[in-house]
């Protein structure tokens, strides 16, 4: 049987409940008419780095160790390396600097950073970090005298006027994917990983999509609403219900814009007769707080708003079109699923027992899903220093978390020893009120899978970040 191409699309920060609204993402729902949708899919971590690490290894964060305290991905056996051994071309189109060779994701045959037009040119972030305008201008002037000057100038203009304001990389990503595809000369199948950042803070959808979603009053003030999650968390920025309504609509508009770009990507493959011979997987790496639990962004919590993510798989040879499979799924299950679809015989190892998804009668899914958050990001001490607040005001967030969720119960366990048990009804966990029931059974099951609760200490991490990556990660709210 011929090995299929595989296109793995991660919509960074996409919540399942928003994606499931057809009015928000009509093109994705059109694809879903010929796909299988898995509505009970959960991330194994609530933010990018550990979540992608689980996706690419089939392991829990406590197994692969990439928790934030450790930021360098150093696994020998990854999804990319194993597919490469099977004759696949592997290529990454990433808009998130976490998913780059700088953090150990170097198993792809080809890596394409999509957050700037050219990989050549000066390190603009390091220039911006110099103290004083005179020193910055001096450093920039010397760079503009070099042969790399045209690339430096174009990158600067793009990052200033396009990336993060009109577009968070989706347009450039599609262009680069299409160019790469058209230039292919090999007959080997491909594994293409694409990470889009549109739903991620800050929410700056193009005007056309703002006008489709926002009210007249919201259009007048959308650019003034607070989008600093840590200012809100520390109490240095006050926000009203109307502010969160506006943020939610901006988030919807971002998803609408991304949906339009995804529609063009799928149409490109369809026009070239490749769609039906390609496994197309669309998912998220985690969700987002939009005011729920008095939080923004995707840290300090294991709520369903952060963990329940979209997942649909289109491959007519194996997955029925227009169907739903309500079994419990973990994001890391895609590791074994993709290897199985690629025809890899031995898809498991001592560290990976994740079953592949299929539609056979024997596939009943998991009886529980597990997620871990083992190192607060950013560190609480960092927030206290940056926003000049007393530690006691945000001390409650300085703890690790892990959760186990079945069809009817969800347990969240904290590193301080406390537990919260919630009811799950019709696929929705009611996390507003905890249950007065025994937590021992779920806690025992959780421990049997991921072991004793250990807290990762960020102070043990001595990794030096490249200045360009450090600045961008700070802009995204991670540091």
Question: In words, what does this structure look like?
Answer:
By secondary structure, this protein is an alpha/beta fold. The chain has 18 helices and 18 strands. The protein has helices spanning 16-19, 26-32, 48-57, 61-64, 79-85, 124-128, 133-144, 149-161, 170-182, 207-213, 216-221, 229-233, 241-271, 304-307, 333-341, 380-387, 440-450, 467-475, and strands at 5-11, 36-37, 41-42, 89-94, 110-113, 190-196, 278-283, 289-290, 296-297, 308-309, 311-314, 323-324, 329-330, 369-373, 401-405, 409-414, 419-425, 428-429. A hairpin with a 5-residue loop joins strand 8 (289-290) and strand 9 (296-297).
Low-confidence stretches: 123-132
Class computed from helices, strands and strand pairing: alpha/beta
Compute the gyration radius: what is it?
A: 22 Å
Tell me about the largest β-sheet.
Answer: 8 strands, mixed
- The assembly state of the depicted protein chains is single chain
- Beta-strand percentage range: 15-25%
Per DSSP E runs of 2 or more residues, the count of β-strands stands at 18
Q: Report the CATH topology name of the largest domain.
A: Alkaline Phosphatase, subunit A
Determine the number of helices (DSSP H or I, runs of at least 4 residues). Answer: 18
Strand order, largest beta sheet: 5-4-6-1-7-11-2-12
Number of domains: 2
Assign the CATH superfamily of the largest domain.
Alkaline Phosphatase, subunit A
Shape: globular
Q: Look at the structure and give the mean pLDDT.
A: 87
Helix content: 25-40%
Q: How far apart are the first and last residues' alpha carbons, in Å?
A: 47 Å
CATH class wording of the largest domain = Alpha Beta
- Which CATH-level-2 architecture of the largest domain? 3-Layer(aba) Sandwich
